[in-house]
């Protein structure tokens, strides 16, 4: 089990304040969605949690520890970045196998447990049938699922996915969100950056709403996805029904200034 906490976290990218004073604790067993407009600081927040960019103030604690080395973080937290470009014509199975690197020493070969983790990840991401295909020849949606399989192959107790629904058709979007929810229900900490508010309402246990680098609302979807919050942060009007079996959030138009 992994817990991630930030205390007064500040991140600057050049002159831009990307993350401003964020205090949050993320605990296992929940699917946490991070939402907000473009440029709100969502990706910068998770990259700082992972130690991929430097915090200018405050700190990040993983299981109560600060300054954990990158290899240990990679074993504990699998990461699916957004918008990855594939440059090498690797077979899908070999690409997914890269998820096992945090567990291998220099020049080490895959063991039986690694092979099992790779196959299980491909099954869960619905890409086992693609294992012999060349990854650079796949469609955008197929590549997205293969990269998710690579993250799952890590076998880490936490997963952070940055916009995992991009390039996916509606059916596979549902499959991915159901998979992330299942990972959380099995005891993992799962954090995902989302732009689709309907998917956030339907699948997430907790939402963090960000605006201009600040965490402005943190809570259950019904407490975060209110007309007032969406108007203030996104500048939109929306139809919202979170009371039924299938939550509904439908943006219907821009609000006039």
From TrEMBL:
Keywords assigned: ATP-binding, Nucleotide-binding, Translocase, Transport
Entry keyword Repeat: no
ABC transporter domain ranges (all copies): 4-237
SMART domains per UniProt: AAA
Pfam family, one: ABC_tran
GO molecular function: ATP binding; ATP hydrolysis activity
Protein family membership: Belongs to the ABC transporter superfamily.
Function: Part of the ABC transporter complex HmuTUV involved in hemin import. Responsible for energy coupling to the transport system.
PANTHER family: HEMIN IMPORT ATP-BINDING PROTEIN HMUV
Protein name (record): ABC transporter
Organism per entry: Sphingobium ummariense RL-3
Lineage: Bacteria, Pseudomonadati, Pseudomonadota, Alphaproteobacteria, Sphingomonadales
